[in-house]
Amino acid sequence: NASTVTPVDYTILSMIFPLIIATIMCVAQQLTGINAIMNYAPTITKAMGLSAILGNFIVMLWNFVTTVLSIPASSKFSMRQLFVTGTLIASGATFITGVPIYPGVYDNETGRQGLAGLGIFLFILAFEVGMGPAFFVLSQELFPTSFRPKGASYTVATQFVFNVVINVCFPIAVENLSGGPSGDQNKGLAIVFFFFGVCGTVSFALLFKFLYPYNDHEDHALAADVVEAV
User: Fold this and answer.
1) Average pLDDT by consecutive 10-residue portion of the chain (230 residues)?
2) DSSP letter string over the chain?
3) pTM of the full predicted structure?
C-alpha cells in the first residue's frame, strides 16, 4: 500500500527550490513591514487627534477583529490563496501609506493622515486574515513529509531573522533617509514604505507563480516503486 510506505529522504540540495520559495514567503511576510506598520500606527492616530491610549486601542481592536476573521476565511479559501492575496493587498497598502506622507506630495494634512491610516488598516487586514496565519501552515506544506521538520524549522527561523532585521534597521533607516534627526522624518518613512511595497510586489509575482504545497503522493508513489523493485 503506497500510503503506508515510508517516504523517501531528501537532502537539502534536493530541496533547494522549496527552500527558496520559503525564503520568499519570509520576505513577503516581514519585509512588507508588519512591525514597522504597527510601530507607525500610533503616530498616525495621534496625528488624527486621538490620544495615544485611544489610538493604540483602536489599532489593537482592529488587529483582534481581523484575526478573528481569519477563522471563517480559512474554511473558504486555501492557504495559498490567503497568503498570495494577502501579499498583494499588503503591498498596495504600503504604497497607500507611503505616498501621501512623502513631503510635498499631499498638502492636505487631514487627507494625508486619512490615506495613511487607510493603508495601515488595509495592511493589518491583509496580514491578519491572510499572510499571518497562512504562513505557518505553508511553512510545513511546502515540503515533503520526510523533510518537513527541517524545512519548517528553516522557514520559521528565517522569518524571525527578518523580524529582527526590520526591528533594528527600521528606525535607523528612517532617520538616515530623512537626512538625520533634524530632517523631515516623513521623508524617510515614505521611502521605507516604498521599499516595503516593492518587496511585497516582487514577492507576490514570484509566489503567485511558484507557491504550491508539496504533493506527498509523489513521495509515496516513488517509495512504493522502490519497495516493489526490491
Assistant:
1) 53 91 95 82 66 81 93 93 96 90 80 82 94 94 91 95 90 90 87 94 96 70 44
2) -GGGSPPPP--TTTTHHHHHHHHHHHHHHHTT-HHHHHHHHHHHHHHTT--HHHHHHHHHHHHHHHHHHHHHHHHHS-HHHHHHHHHHHHHHHHHHHHHHHSTTT---HHHHHHHHHHHHHHHHHHIIIIIHHHHHHHHHHTS-GGGHHHHHHHHHHHHHHHHHHHHHHHHHHHHHHTTSTTS-HHHHHHHHHHHHHHHHHHHHHHHHHH-----HHHHHHHHHHHHHH-
3) 0.84
Are residues 3 and 220 in contact, defined by beta-carbon separation less than 8 angstroms?
yes
Amino acid identity of 154?
Y
Structure confidence at residue 159 (pLDDT): 94
- Residue 223 is predicted with a pLDDT of 41
